[in-house]
Amino acid sequence: MRDNVVLIGMMGCGKTTVGGLLARKLGFTFVDTDQYIEEALGRSIPDVFAKEGEAFFRDWELGAAEELAQQRRLVISCGGGLPTRCDSIASLKYSGTVIFLRRDPGEIYDNVSMGGRPLGQQGREAFLERYAAREPIYLEWADHVVDVQPTPVETAQRILEVLNA
Fold first, then answer.
1. What helix, strand, coil percent values describe the chain, rounded to 5?
2. 89-110 core/surface letters (b: 16 or more CB in 10 A; e: else)
């Protein structure tokens, strides 16, 4: 395992919940890139998307990724779209082991609130299409693929097993 653990996957797959549990088990610091950006801007992601648009947000995401890649002993939960920009995910991959946290997209859409998720507002079909477009990107950047388990604790444990293998 490299210095950091980087969790990628679709919005709502459990990266933030599992990442927090994983960080505690490893004795690492947990960072969610979306929360990191919200704190830096003093505004919510939906507000940023509404006022400045996705491109502005993605530029901030790049800066966050580059800053976090310079640190060590982090579990980093990436926003679902971060890996779609090579320049954003490349520095994180260099600094850490990338885990694609895979969960059925229909299950995500049907069971996770899309409120407050700007790119989850266009309906189920658009969500499934976005997942289909992103999955090959997630697979390309991942060092390991871990399927979401019945509970976040079990998912974190499965990631630990993969990291220690």
1. 60, 15, 25
2. bebbbebbbbbbbbbebeebbe
d(CA 99, CA 49): 27
Quote the strand ranges of the chain, DSSP E.
Answer: 4-8, 29-32, 74-77, 96-102, 144-147
Residue 114 has pLDDT above 90, yes or no: no
Give me Rg for the CA atoms of the chain. Answer: 15
Residue 123 banded pLDDT, cuts 50, 70, 90: confident
| Edge-first strand listing for the sheet containing 96-102 | 29-32, 74-77, 4-8, 96-102, 144-147
Distance in angstroms (rounded) separating the CA atoms of residues 148 and 6: 15
Give the residue carrying structure tokens 């919940």.
Answer: 17
> What would the mean pLDDT of 17-39 be, rounded to a whole number?
97
**Contact at 8 Å (CB) between 12 and 108?**
yes
pTM: 0.93
